Amino acid sequence: MSEQVFNQATLAKYDGQQGQPAYVAVDGVVYDVTGVEAWAGGKHHGNLAGQELTAVIDGKSPHGRKVLAKLPVVGKYEA
């Protein structure tokens, strides 16, 4: 099975709303945050699932990228 490739429009569909999974992209990798309690409803501290969040996690997140290792990778992101 080939790796799924997301762009801005396809990633936006995975916003954690109305039964959709919640995905976020960081540095070209798309992660599934659906099962993460802090991302319930596709929202986490003002950030929304279905978006590319590299600048947020690098510049504003207190935990940085270390949390990404615990998340399932679902594909890659190409702007």
How would you describe this structure to a colleague?
With 79 residues, this protein is an alpha/beta fold. The chain has a single domain, classed as Flavocytochrome B2, Chain A, domain 1. It contains 2 helices and 7 strands. The strands form 2 sheets. The chain has a 5-stranded mixed sheet with strand order 1-7-3-2-6. A two-stranded antiparallel ribbon has the order 4-5. Strand 4 and strand 5 form a beta hairpin. The protein is globular and about 30 Å long. The mean pLDDT is 93.
Please write out the topology.
Layout: E1 4-6, H1 8-12, E2 23-26, E3 29-32, E4 43-44, E5 47-48, E6 51-52, H2 54-59, E7 73-77
Parallel strand pairs: 1-7, 2-6
Antiparallel strand pairs: 2-3, 3-7, 4-5
What key phrases describe this protein's structure?
alpha/beta; Flavocytochrome B2, Chain A, domain 1; five-stranded mixed beta sheet; 2 helices; Cyt_B5-like_heme/steroid-bd; Cyt_B5-like_heme/steroid_sf
Q: Give the neighbour order of strands across the main sheet.
A: 1-7-3-2-6
The chain-level mean pLDDT equals 93
Shape: globular
What would you give as the CATH superfamily?
Cytochrome b5-like heme/steroid binding domain
How far the N terminus sits from the C terminus, by CA atoms, comes to 22 Å
Summarize the structure.
The protein is built from two helices and seven strands; from the N terminus they run βαβββββαβ. The chain has 79 residues and is α/β, with parallel strands linked by helices. The chain has one domain: Roll (Flavocytochrome B2, Chain A, domain 1).
